[in-house]
Design goal:
The structure is a homohexamer of 275-residue chains. The first copy, chain A, has 275 residues and is mostly helical. In chain A, 48% of the residues lie in helices and 3% in strands. Chain A has 2 domains: 19-197, Ferritin (Up-down Bundle); 207-247, no CATH class. Chains in contact: A-B, A-C, A-D, A-E, A-F, B-C, B-D, B-E, B-F, C-D, C-E, C-F, D-E, D-F, E-F. Chains A, B, C, D, E, F: It comes from Virgibacillus xinjiangensis.
Chain lengths: 275, 275, 275, 275, 275, 275
């Protein structure tokens, strides 16, 4: 059960409106690695956790916080859109500053959302649940989480470069910090889990299921051997089970496949053309 | 530039057709973490790599291999669909074994693809590019890669449980092994990069951009303090910059937001209703 | 800012697992009118509200509650999936009860989510933000809300018919009640707003913008005049500005359009084929 | 069965080309509440109507008309794109008026559609069937319809503000009028149905299915009691069954959920990590 | 402008309900090559035609007819769903015939659409505008049309195999015939246009834009030379400009690309990792 | 199995960066008819081919080549983005040339991809598998292929018009040539197959399945008889089975459909409203 407090977790007030920047900021609201993604990813992981109450709680702590981040960015976007001029473009274009800015705002911010934020990315693609991961396997999902926080923090840093507005930058400085924390915590979790389970997820696959002769071999599918020069090549692999080996020549272990002819009732290519 | 060899990298021949299993196997072909996803993710990362030829080559080696895995699974699916009976369902349902199987196959395998594989997941959702990550930041992307290989190997393990067919299992044993290798190699890469850069991605954010007082704090947004009992809580965080601290009570650092009234030309709620 | 309480708002415990029903129940979790949709719709409407603090609060009260409903249904689905058998289908099909049930579960519940809920609908389509409405106009959005609660409650009623499980039905009885409340409250809001503004949204369009001779006319585009027999036909329209009139014959008020030829630099049909 | 008349229902001729406005106008052609949406929504509702021939006819009258509106807007967009210059951007940018306009047109209008309209929205997202509603329940669907016409008319009003072109405005004045009519007719229908059925959809749910103690209660999930001050709070609810009551403190009626451990064959978190 | 006639163009009445077949039939209603696709494709092509009134008329004749086909199939699906039992699955599964059938129907047909058709495909994916083609180039679009009618007729043939219901087959026999006509007409159009323009679309590309030394060469990118044995290999190509030639060995005409290092403000891989 | 050669098939080096053009060029990388589409379409067709090794090889030759085209365009886009300025827009807008260009670049190129290419179209829509066709029927699929190459070459020609950069144009001249070849080869294949099978796909439908009285009739659904004047009207149809005939008046061959009332358990419109 969730309750809402009207005060924001952190400041979300720009120095002045900037509808073009509002369009860009949508990326970390409703993009692939925006705040909606991490909120939903953590909530679903938490709700689906079977056992391990400590990690379930950690995930829910973080998930609930992220809904508040969605709120902060949505509020910021609404303010960046304040009084955005929405009028005849050709007229506006006579003033290059106004013209350039007006043309570049997201037209749906005015037409669809009435100067409000939308759960969409910087190109206007709607957020969708394909962005998130909830597998039931804690180690695998912690990796999804550190991935999401890494990509997310990278995007915040790039957006920080794109504005001089002190109010916007203040909010982004908070998001950078929280993404630092979240990377730290998921990495700490991964280290603890790897210590117990080993590094290869899932750790429950019995060795006899696996063609282990292929488990530590880099195969040179892209001509040229630069990758053989990597420092860790030839050394023990992270799973501690063997050394990395380098296979210069890709080998085809199976024959050329030849499919059975199609039965007539599927109306594939007729027999005379199958020859 | 890519060239194709008709022999398969590994065997992809089931003992006998099984159209219901073909539907399930689609997940690791065209699902969020299927082989198309890793192939496309690695290829785009490789093409976009600026500098670091060793890692570029490693990524391209792996990307090119994965196209061959798409080929193996597509071939397996086509064979699992061999001679799938496609006829009146009610008639078939009189034999419960046939009826159950027929009903459960993916209808598009027959209607749309003529007993062939499709770039779709186990529920028939088409593959889309929102599944992949290519950010230009090597550490961040290596994390995306270890995430993808962890989720992917987990799904292969689950699919292994769902069949007794020795031919299918043989192919899956190869995929398990390659996913082991790929997890190993991306983890090795992450370790090398973290050693040089530090663990928080991107590592190029100057400290003065970040509200560092929030960079190591777990905030208890989900009532109950189980997460405070985690072994690593209170200890040094992976970035080595501070200890994890635990904040029992979430604090709102900003005021309740109040947005400006909408200008009349956007036809939001009229003034008398805004009060 | 949002905080989470681990206790559920209401019971979400089935009498016994039922993976096939779990698949169906996904509709009111992650479908077009599922709980994710109403939660996100209300939160975005609330965050974007400019003025009218009473309605903003009402919307936020309801939005925060809905996240808790997502949680209840996700929990119920995880329990319906408890110990779902996931094995060789043909083997299972020999027992028609098990075979039929196993075949009909959502394969991603096992392969992708490890027996957990997903933000998807009953056919496995991922939730997406195209399902929601946040326009900045309060009257228009209240109509979106009563629409969502009507469709949502209708789906809950249908799902109630599809199970005999007393635990599931208990949860659905709560959702039916809350959807009753939410329909009631949005209707009350609409009535209040219509009284102040009039019934046609947006109410701020000046009459001279509108070709008002077409504002009260039903045009008989589908041959046959059954619709002319509607009780309210010929009577005063809800906006009180005129009576409904019935136009038996559709009239074309404009000429047949003829587009300019394409300029050569777009490589449309070449001139000789444009004739 | 449908027949086409080449004359347009109303004028669709701009004073002069304006490719930037063409991009914006796409919203009411192929956006969430564009004309394709209402056309498809009404046609599917009509085709699926079981009984009630008067309403079926009303719905089909309106659905057939809306295809003609799609035609008008598509024609307008093609004309707004007439002779759109499509050339080297940097060259063009030297003239700020031309540069701004060229940069802001939808690039697919030139590259993909050869200066023609597309079934997409103002950001180029393709129209999809998730935008529409056809539930089989007449009252519920009438609410979907008044929602669609309210959002649609709001967008037309905003687009009217964004142009000074008299030809475009003439077409929009017609669309405003038809949306007025359609709001009026769906509201009249709702009133008639509510009078017969009651206001809560679907009206066929027996009271014993519903936890009616929760059917009239506003729960204060967003701290602060502004919503308690709404005029209608405490008064009889629209369904006439009880007064609205206000619950200041959200109550959790169920225990904290604890899921069963995952069976080993799904390879979720292994037992030692579940603790 | 479009008008509707309530009589159907052709019969759409099954002998008896069959909800499982209803699910499959959705493919030719709302799938990639279903009737919605051809209707929308032809209408947009017609509306965007610049000049050539004869072809514009042909396209509009066909587009308007296709809306009537959508109507026929939607009606058929509603009837196949008549009285579909929608109840507890486990109970039903005791009768293998009923159980198998119930489990295999599209759950959204009951939960979302109230036993009506939906604009979706056989796996429940919503129709979307990415399925259609309208390029402004008549020859190119005629090829899109013959493609659509070929895939569409193939799917109708496969669906014909999957039922014994005489009512369904009667409707399909009509659709097969109309798809024959439409293939014939688009092929006739292509032949006429190719005769005037030549076979390579668009025909307006000046030869000096094209690296013509690569315009007639098959390059053997897939090892093995079976394709060199094709009857037409070595003979004059359809464009009449040269003979087909066969290049046994793929040649790389450009160097290995090396991208510039990323500027620091995008926070890609930092300099020490770029080496 | 696929191997990669680091040298490009052809040059992909612009004279100078142009981030706005990079956005447009995305269309032929990740759009509906971009290189990813043809690569995936041919690979899936090849993998699913049952019999006919010559055509399978031809398809695989072409599919493998197309992955190399994806590579060329991705490389070109990364170079067009070299050192793209990514900073405060309002500041930049003071210089109209820079301002216009910066505003028009795809914001995700900087925020998400770190100045790299993405598998998306010119409006930022992610590539998805609904763009491709693989039906199992060779004649039908060859038509899909000639369609794809026609639309693709048309888009390349339009993009050629939009730049003066000699490096970009050089790459496009190669793509124009390869699209010429691919149109030629698929047309040659179609001609060979049509000669053996006849022109109507699939050719395996027995005549008694088809209501052949409707197989050669153009029905005048769009009022006005321009289409009757087409040169080929009245002449023998391409299938050689009859002459094209022209039906001036559309005829409804079936009665007005009336659906059965809905059973109460689906909670459609209640009985009193069904009347």
């Amino acid at each position: 059960m969730f309750t809402h407090k009207k005060e924001l977790q952190f400041h979300a007030k720009p120095e002045r409106p900037d509808p073009v920047y509002a369009k860009k900021l949508q990326e970390i609201l409703g993009g692939q690695f925006g705040e909606i993604s991490v909120a939903m990813q953590y909530l679903f992981q938490g709700w689906n956790t079977r056992g391990n109450e400590k990690y379930k709680d950690l995930i829910m702590d973080t998930g609930a916080e992220e809904i508040g981040h969605v709120e902060m960015i949505a509020t910021m976007i609404a303010r960046l859109l304040d009084k955005a001029a929405v009028k005849d473009q050709e007229e506006a274009a006579k003033d290059p500053v106004i013209g350039s800015i007006m043309g570049d705002m997201n037209p749906q911010h005015a037409i669809v959302n009435g100067l409000g934020a939308a759960p969409k990315d910087a190109n206007g693609n709607p957020w969708n649940a394909d962005y998130i991961v909830s597998s039931g396997n804690l180690l695998a999902d912690m990796r999804a989480n550190v991935n999401a926080e890494s990509q997310g923090r990278l995007q915040v840093a790039r957006l920080y470069e794109m504005t001089e507005d002190r109010g916007v930058r203040e909010m982004l400085s908070f998001l950078l910090a929280r993404d630092t924390m979240h990377q730290n915590q998921w990495i700490a979790a991964i280290r603890e889990l790897e210590e117990k389970e080993g590094v290869v997820a899932p750790s429950t696959v019995p060795p006899e299921w696996e063609a282990t002769e292929f488990s530590h071999q880099l195969i040179n599918f892209s001509e040229g051997e630069e990758s053989a020069q990597l420092d860790w090549m030839g050394k023990e692999a992270p799973d501690g089970k063997a050394k990395f080996e380098y296979a210069s020549k890709p080998v085809a272990h199976a024959e050329k496949p030849k499919l059975e002819p199609a039965p007539p009732y599927v109306h594939d290519t007729p027999p005379h053309d199958q020859k």
